[in-house]
Amino acid sequence: MSRKFTWFNATALTLGFAFLYIPMIVLVVYSFNESKLVTVWAGFSTKWYGELFRNQAFLDAAWVTLKVAVMSSTLATVLGTMAAYVLVRAGRFHGRTLFSGMIYAPLVMPEVITGLSLLLLFISLNIPRGVFTIVLAHTTFSMCYVSVVVSSRLASFDRSLEEAALDLGCTPFDAFRSVTLPVIAPAVISGWLLAFTLSLDDLVIASFTSGPSSTTLPIKIFSAVRLGVSPEINALSTIMIAIVTVGVITASLMSKRALVKRQRDEQRAFQQ
Amino acid sequence: MRRFTLIAVPYLWLLALFLVPFGIVFKISLSDAALAIPPYTPTLDLSEGWAGIKALFAELDFDNFVWLTQDDLYWRAYLSSLQIALFSTLGCLLVGFPIAYGMANASESWRPTLMMLVILPFWTSFLIRVYAWIGILSTEGLLNQFLMTIGIISEPLQILNTNKAVYIGIIYTYLPFMILPIYASLERIDGSLLEAAEDLGCSRLQAFWLITVPLARPGVIAGSFLVFIPTIGEFVIPSLLGGSRTLMIGKVLWEEFFSNRDWPVASAVAVVLLLILVIPIVLFQRNEQKQREAEQ
Amino acid sequence: MAQVAPRPVFEPWNEPAAKPLIQFQNVTKRFGEFTAIDNLSLDIYEREFFALLGPSGCGKTTMMRMLGGFETPTEGKILLGGQDIAPVPPNKRPVNMMFQSYALFPHLTVYDNIAFGLKRSDMPKSEIAGRVEEMLKLTRLGKFAGRKPHQISGGQRQRVALARALAKAPKLLLLDEPLGALDKKLRTETQFELMDIQERTGTTFVIVTHDQEEAMTVASRIAVMNDGLLVQVDTPGRIYETPNSTYVADFIGDVNIIEGTAQPAGEGAYTVAWAEGQPALSVQSATELGAGDRCFFAIRPEKVAISAEKPADRPNAVQGKILDIAYLGNISTYHVELPGGVIIKAQTANDRRISRRSFTWEDSVWLSWTATAGVLLAN
């Protein structure tokens, strides 16, 4: 694009980002409100954070959510990477079309349908619902996201690197471990992070597949929010927003630093 | 052998946890509701062998689908879902295009930061972002307080629990899906194309309509589908921001299942929803395919 | 390096009465701290094929973009037909540009690309089709009118860009590295095509290029630029034969440069002392130099003769040893090292078969040239 930054661009960006961020800023600000009424400012206080940390139900739900997220995202990363490898590298095999269809379909599937279908499966197989079933459900839809992220990286990966490794005496597994994996590692990591956030975030599928003893945080928040706004939820939201913000900023700073370092190294190599 | 394992593991996983469940949904959509556990008949009794399977098929019918056409709740819900999805997609486009355009015109050093600012909300909990609007849109909420203070209105507006709030919520949460593909296609436009257009006698505005807009089209189409498709089945936004009169099919399905415990009807609703979604999904895939081919 | 003179009589820059089409008057352009064009004045005449030549970053593209209206001068004036064009936006200038990337609109067909400018002009709709056909014919693109830019070859794209820029019959056509994206063979063909079209349409062309051969081939005059300054503006022949500085001599073609001290020897003649124990060179030169001035003797390799025996009839002859031979088919270049360590390149045409080539590595040979074969330069 031509770099003609006009007042129109500036206005569009200012208004656009105001729209994106004001609601979240309001949420954060009112988490420090003294009053129980979220819409009336009554002075600064951190008491809702205290309340939050004394609320055993929330803490339990957070723990369940974290367990589910770690397990499902790890499992999804393994399965999703395998699926990506199959999509990009395995060539033709029976049922390839069906396979790639099953990888892409969950990305556009309404959550209510995915949730409903998995629940009906668990019931007809008589599997008791709990952490285990949520993990299965989350793994299934997030592995598809992982495989999309990883396969786009794999597709741009120079095949001759692997061939060179094989030529130098690696077994196919060795070649994957020592050549392919380090190259696609950034994609695998962002796939894991994506799967992790999707799992943390999911309300609908978890509602269908959880049991009475396995309430996740989104389910808890949803039922609390349905009753109206509460400053405790604001406090909880603030903590979650803070974690994500720190995470995203750290990640982008790290990738920027890696890029700058790489450019500097290349420049240096060029000058020599 | 290794290749076989590599293919088999994810394949079987998806078969068992994605495809088979759909088969079950389809089967139950053909069953009848019953006061039993599970709450539908017939159920498959494998102890009777082949006869059991035959008995099962004999009892399946399309009654639930007929029922969906008879009770106007359902088709009104489908239509209203489509309408809400369509209008909020347009809304997203109107809000998102100028932002993407501004980003693409910003200096190279600013763009990664702007990009991060668009992606950041995407990593933040969906539920929380929807929740944030409750406090803003309610009758005693910040928007009404603000508008009354500056004197535009004297009575608080009823926005929360109406379709207006649903539109705002959808536009807000799905905006990054619209911005990113449009930005990607705008950013790819070679600046010399616009200079060439000016050189050949276009004004800035003409160059925008004749060059920028047509070249941004693939991004606009992709973004629109990315908003439209998931919005149709949306549940969280209508149930938190919408009112009792907000009809969306995701919410109907949820209530049919959890409140009415009518599993066969819920399944039939899901099957029809899937059939409706097939059209935009196929169109979307075709657009993506065309894009990929054009790039080669 | 043969120069194809467009027309022997066409030399408006030598006619005092001729009015220039474009005048740069003390133009300076700064981008922040960086000065891209430094107080530059230049006249370009109607029907000229004018080349701006220089390495990247020398300011040649900035000159062109100022003519197109995409940059405005920080100081000074640019006149087009006597009028200051600073306040005229690009879309109102009778100037069209052919972009380096071609900038063909990817969503429009070849036909619509060419018609694009005409549709924005006040040309009646009925005449547009005729004009586009004319352009398609001129550039031999008739068969491809219905195709999109990505469905045609690089050379065809180049011609579409040319047709599109010419369609509005501009007073001035700007060409930014027009052949840069083509391979060598196609480039040479296209150069002649460009000259042909320029002559047929009678449009003034200003071309920006970093390729000296291209500039030599197509241009009526060349401006050699460096660091935002004009180093020399002249016809290709004069730039090649009488460069005004070592920069120009080195930039255009291959050259041997020998540093030495000048000693006037009457009527434009000089002797140049250049190394201990070597005879001074005798040179005829237009450059005014005083006794004992430092100077540079520049001579083209093809003007240096190579022989086994010392030639009797040449005023300048030095002996050396062959270091390297580059065989290029039609010619061979010999790198000959003189006793002081100076390496001189000598070129001979291979009018005999390779088997009968007379010199080989390590041979001791004589290099010789006439007094008028090279030039003396002060810097």
Automatic annotation (TrEMBL), chain A:
Keywords: Cell membrane, Membrane, Transmembrane, Transmembrane helix, Transport. PROSITE patterns: ABC_TM1. GO terms for cellular component: plasma membrane. Residues 62-254 form the ABC transmembrane type-1 domain. Pfam families: BPD_transp_1 (PF00528). It is a multi-pass membrane protein. It is found in: Cell membrane. SUPFAM superfamilies: MetI-like. GO terms for biological process: transmembrane transport. The chain crosses the membrane at residues 12-32, 68-90, 102-125, 131-150, 179-200, 233-254. Belongs to the binding-protein-dependent transport system permease family. CysTW subfamily. This is Inner membrane ABC transporter permease protein YdcV.
TrEMBL record, chain B:
It is a multi-pass membrane protein. Keywords: Cell membrane, Membrane, Transmembrane, Transmembrane helix, Transport. The keyword Phosphoprotein does not apply. The chain crosses the membrane at residues 77-101, 113-134, 165-186, 263-284. Residues 78-284 form the ABC transmembrane type-1 domain. InterPro entries: MetI-like, MetI-like_sf. The gene is potH. Belongs to the binding-protein-dependent transport system permease family. CysTW subfamily. One of its GO terms (biological process) is transmembrane transport. PROSITE patterns: ABC_TM1. It is found in: Cell membrane. Gene3D superfamilies: MetI-like (1.10.3720.10). GO terms for cellular component: plasma membrane. This is Putrescine transport system permease protein PotH.
UniProtKB/TrEMBL annotation, chain C:
Pfam families: ABC_tran (PF00005), TOBE_2 (PF08402). Residues 22-252 form the ABC transporter domain. One of its GO terms (biological process) is putrescine transport. The keyword Iron does not apply. It comes from the Bacteria. Its EC number is 7.6.2.11. Gene3D superfamilies: 2.40.50.100, P-loop containing nucleotide triphosphate hydrolases. Keywords: ATP-binding, Cell inner membrane, Cell membrane, Hydrolase, Membrane, Nucleotide-binding, Translocase, Transport. One of its GO terms (cellular component) is ATP-binding cassette (ABC) transporter complex. SMART domains: AAA. Part of the ABC transporter complex PotABCD involved in spermidine/putrescine import. Responsible for energy coupling to the transport system. The complex is composed of two ATP-binding proteins (PotA), two transmembrane proteins (PotB and PotC) and a solute-binding protein (PotD). Belongs to the ABC transporter superfamily. Spermidine/putrescine importer (TC 3.A.1.11.1) family. This is Spermidine/putrescine import ATP-binding protein PotA. It comes from Pseudoruegeria aquimaris. The gene is potA.
